[in-house]
Amino acid sequence: MWAQTLTAPRTFAPTEVAAPTAADLKPGEVLLRVLAGGVCGSDLPEFKGLKAPSAVGNEPWGVVPGSPLHEVVGEVLASEDSSLDVGTTVVGWATGFNAIAEVVISRADSLYPYTLSLPAATGVLIQPLACVIYALERVTAVEGLDAGVIGQGPIGLLFSHVLRSMGARSVTGVDLVDRSDVAKAYGLDEFRHASSAEWAASLTDARPGLVVEAVGHHVTTLTDAVTAAGFGGEIFYFGIPDDQVYPMNMALFLRKNLTLRSGTTFERSRVLKKATEYLVEHPELADTYVSDVLPADQAQTAFERAVKPQTGQHKVALTMV
């Protein structure tokens, strides 16, 4: 089968590799023909060479064909799980993070039937939306809060939209890229075209009760979230950290009586269902969220776009067929 493989940092190359088959499935797994995939911020460190994909045997860096990509829409070709039949179109996680390929194996409990009439490349938005919904389920309360979202990339925009739908009193988005063109569509009362440090320093008495750090790859933005949050407020750190240790102003955190939450997404099938229902209720998301769609043989271009966000560009997706 074909796959795109990282042969060096920031360098994809087409490769032919052995395809997984039904015989390779373990209980609870399915074999997927990948239809489309979305480039996630957590994929970008591997593309840039900051993290190495999981090694296979003694092969060198960048050896996993199809890596890094995990947001997928695909068709079940074989199944070892009673919840998903052969022929079902599904959306969710490619749990091997190797979906820039013709066929992959994934866990069935990380997938959900895709029943919408939207193109597969648009439907990839359900997976990050599910992550956002799960994160905000864990926040103490949203209704009536003033919220701030640091980062208005693909994840940050979804946080802004869902916070508004959950009844936040106001939502402020902050980003170094100008997102004023879509601020209203994603429920923002205010968009600040500034760094998170500049935004946090500008706040006086009116401070958000909830701050979402939706950047995920910068140490300083967590400190900025602490600076921005109001007394007794809550911070949700979203994303996969590049560094194991994040310094933070603990004295300020303590004196403000703040709460810090984080974590990855569990109960994936359940929240994929909720995200599907959310998209049905808010079809306008499908009009703007996926801004760039490229074929799989242009994975290099797709990832180069994703690492250089700009106005008008949100989610970058790949079509595999």
Quaternary state of the chains: single chain
Q: What is the global morphology? A: globular
The proportion of strand residues reads 25-35%
Major sheet summary line = 7 strands, mixed
Q: Cα distance, first to last residue? A: 13 Å
Can you give a write-up of this model?
The structure is a single chain. The protein has helices at residues 44-48, 120-123, 126-137, 154-165, 196-202, 219-228, 250-255, 268-281, 285-288, 299-306; strands spanning 2-8, 11-16, 29-38, 71-79, 89-93, 103-107, 111-113, 146-150, 170-175, 190-193, 210-213, 234-237, 259-261, 290-295, 315-319. It is an alpha/beta fold and 321 residues long. It has 2 domains: 2-125 and 289-319, Quinone Oxidoreductase, Chain A, domain 1, CATH 3.90.180; 132-261, NAD(P)-binding Rossmann-like Domain (Rossmann fold), CATH 3.40.50.720. Strands 3, 4, 5, 6, 7, 14 and 15 form a 7-stranded mixed sheet that branches. Strands 10-9-8-11-12-13 form a 6-stranded parallel sheet, sandwiched between helices. A two-stranded antiparallel ribbon has the order 1-2. Helix 7 (250-255) links the parallel strand 12 and strand 13. The longest helix is centred in the last third of the chain and has 14 residues, at 268-281. The model has no long low-confidence stretch (mean pLDDT 95).
